[in-house]
Amino acid sequence: GAKMSSSDPDSKIDLLDSKKSVKTKINKAFCEEGNVETNGVLMFVKHVLFPISSLRDDKPEFVVERPEKYGGNTVYSDYESLERDFAEKNVHPGDLKNSVSSAINILLDPIREHFEQPEMQKLLAEAYPAPKAVAKPVKQKKKHNKCPEDRTAPSAESVEEKLAGTTI
């Protein structure tokens, strides 16, 4: 899969992205069923979500959320078990993406809440001012098939007179 890039706004998650935006971005991410080699969603779990969860509870944990009719939630205490289940197609990409979106949103909620405060809104506005509209230069219209303004177009009669003496 493609790497995250700040030049592609859909390939990175900002700390202040809305819940909906996070879900949309994760849903767009490449996550082929059974593919553990080039799977950015799995790599995010491995390198971000598992380490962060171990900081909170001193033991890593990631929950794949899914409806009971598909086996219910599965709790993973190590990345290798999740990777194995994904490779064996015991975890569906849609369930993995939904679970990753949910976990990211849980992490970002306190940050979003903090930045709703007026002083934080002011700081954001100063740090990231809205782009000013740039006036586009007005293009001059080209004067195709027009006579120069200091001349008038010849009349049909004068053209006929000039052509009358020519032979084809």
Which terms summarize this structure?
2 strands, two-stranded antiparallel sheet, mainly alpha, single chain, 168 residues, elongated, 6 helices
Q: Averaging pLDDT over every residue, what do you get? A: 86
- Quote the distance from N terminus to C terminus: 70 Å
Shape: elongated
> C-alpha Rg, in Å?
31 Å
Put simply, the count of helices is 6
Order of helices and strands: HHEEHHHH
Strand fraction: under 5%
Helix content: 40-55%
Low-pLDDT residue intervals, each spanning 5 or more residues? none
Query: Could you give a short account of the major beta sheet?
Result: 2 strands, antiparallel
- Strands ordered across the widest β-sheet: 1-2
**Strands, count:** 2
The structural class is mainly alpha
Task: Please explain how this structure is put together.
The protein has 168 residues and is mostly helical. The protein contains 6 helices and 2 strands; from the N terminus they run H-H-E-E-H-H-H-H. Strands 1-2 form a two-stranded antiparallel sheet.
